[in-house]
Design goal:
Strand content: 15-25%
Mean pLDDT: 78
Radius of gyration: 34 Å
Number of helices: 10
Low-confidence stretches: 1-42
Largest sheet: 5 strands, antiparallel
Structural class: alpha+beta
Length: 277
């Protein structure tokens, strides 16, 4: 907004700083905003300011200190070009302020995510199980209602039958992603330390790290990327040192303790099914 801008620009800024901010929050600026033209001096004032000065203030022009008349000389609508100039000043950088380079913003985001490279986040809906016998290495079999599908809807199953050096393993491991975290916790509470074919199943919540593309503020092109692309829960995030101190296991135990007890018959029934196959 402009007030007597042709007379004293300083008055325009100081007199409007507080009032115009409230107007902007309540009255939308439009291309048809009218301006009053004072009669004693060739000055401009918007309708809102003129009304405020007339009703709430002393009725005097802040610049020339002349009293505003009851009937202003005339109204003049703001032209399209003038409105565009106003918008460009409003949206553009302030005088003396440099326009920020978009690359600077990306650099700041990347810098703020550097510490996440060593962070592992516990996934409350992801079950990591080891000790699976060879007969239970088919992902579709594990999805069945008589096995892991018994606890709830499964989104994804990934089975690994190889050792770290690429040789066949004597037992398999699997990552099973449930739709709900409660279902994964029930599966862990039921299956952990379960005896199957002379093996002991070990089940726990899986952890994952942040995708390198997310850390670089880039879009990930992998459709089946298993890593994180958003900030994880701070309470479920642990450094490598905290992982070595088993802090993530303490966190998992708290979640399991908050779960309702699993009936012993459920574990016994599932154990029998696993051993029978």
């Amino acid at each position: 907004m402009w007030l007597c801008w042709q007379i004293k620009p300083f008055f325009r800024y100081s007199a409007h700083k507080q009032f115009s901010s409230r107007i902007r929050n309540t009255v939308p600026m439009r291309d048809t905003v009218d301006w009053l033209i004072g009669g004693y001096v060739a000055s401009q004032v918007c309708k809102f300011c003129w009304h405020r000065i007339r009703t709430d203030e002393n009725g005097l022009c802040p610049a020339c200190r002349q009293k505003y008349p009851d009937d202003p000389v005339g109204f003049k609508p703001v032209g399209t070009e003038e409105m565009q100039r106003y918008k460009s000043r409003k949206l553009g950088p302030k005088p003396g302020q440099k326009k920020r380079d978009p690359k600077e913003k990306i650099d700041r985001i990347v810098e703020s995510r550097k510490h996440l490279t060593t962070i592992r986040v516990v996934q409350k809906n992801l079950v990591f199980v080891i000790g699976l016998p060879p007969k239970l290495t088919d992902a579709e079999v594990l999805r069945r209602p008589e096995y892991f599908g018994k606890f709830g809807r499964i989104i994804k199953v990934m089975v690994n039958t190889l050792n770290a050096n690429g040789t066949p393993a004597s037992s398999a491991s699997a990552y099973i992603t449930y739709l709900r975290s409660e279902d994964s916790l029930r599966a862990i509470k039921t299956l952990n330390n379960l005896h199957v074919d002379g093996r002991i199943l070990k089940a726990s919540l899986g952890t994952t790290k942040y995708c390198v593309n997310f850390l670089r503020n880039l879009a990930c092109t992998k459709a089946e990327c298993m890593y994180l692309h958003d900030l994880g829960d701070g309470a479920a995030s642990f450094t490598k040192e905290e992982m070595q101190q088993n802090k993530h296991q303490e966190y998992e135990k708290q979640l399991l303790d908050s779960l309702n007890p699993i009936p012993p018959a459920v574990a016994l029934e599932l154990s029998g099914r696993l051993a029978a196959k």
